[in-house]
Amino acid sequence: MSSISVFVSSNFSSLTKEMSKEISLSELCQKMYPITGVSSEDMELTIESADGNKVKYQVNVMGSIDGIYPFKDFTGTNVTVHVVDPNKDSIVNQLLESGDNSDKYTYTLLEEDYQRRTDSVLQWKKDNKLGKYDPKYQAGLLKQRELQNSIAEKLQVNVRCSVKVSNKLERRGWLRYIGKLQAVANTDNSNDLWCGVEFDEPTGKNDGSINGVRYFGPVLKNHGGFVKPLYVETGDQFTPLESDLDFSDEEI
């Protein structure tokens, strides 16, 4: 069975789809509905090939469309199908007329409703134990948490520290907080312990607070940050680093 590349266009959407060259007009209309939103009983289709051959089907006034094969006489491998909705009272045309108010038709699915759906990608991941639903992933997460928390238990606040996060330059400052963060309460990191650091330089992301919850400080803007205990080392030897922001007397 030969196929043909069909570029579908309408006032709301467009895409390219491979279809059988032997498809009937009735089947074509049914395939156009989920793409364009135009009812198969109302639509007008204009089919045009690359060489300019054009055929128009006014399904809304044709009555029976059985036995019609719209691609049968096209010799090329590519055609364009433009779909129009002549019904002025249709939802498609109402949306077009609404202009900037079209967002009032937007449907938002609440998170809790999505969680309850049985036909979602999320449920598919759960059923097939993929990603964070894989027992091996959960076991690795638990092992990592135990390691991080064991390191955190050996640390003390209000001491000098060095922070070395992967692929970043060393930063130094004061360790000001050790504990959980409300900002990650509903994530895989909800039971993790974090280290709040007051950096010597503005190399952080906050002032000791996250989303209105203060954990230490306030400190100067961008002098605060929170990192995993694995990246923190404490000791009096971690004096302030020489700042790259300083200029010598020999520079202007």
UniProtKB/TrEMBL annotation:
Cell compartments where the protein resides: Cytoplasm
Keyword Transmembrane helix part of the UniProt annotation: no
Residue ranges annotated for the CAP-Gly domain, each copy included: 185-228
Major subcellular location class: cytoplasm
SUPFAM superfamilies: Cap-Gly domain (SSF74924)
Pfam families: CAP_GLY, Ubiquitin_2
GO cellular component, one term: microtubule plus-end
Keyword Cytoplasm: yes
InterPro entries: CAP-Gly_dom_sf, CAP-Gly_domain, Ubiquitin-like_dom
Entry-linked PANTHER family: DYNACTIN 1-RELATED MICROTUBULE-BINDING, TUBULIN-FOLDING COFACTOR B
Protein's name in the database: CAP-Gly domain-containing protein
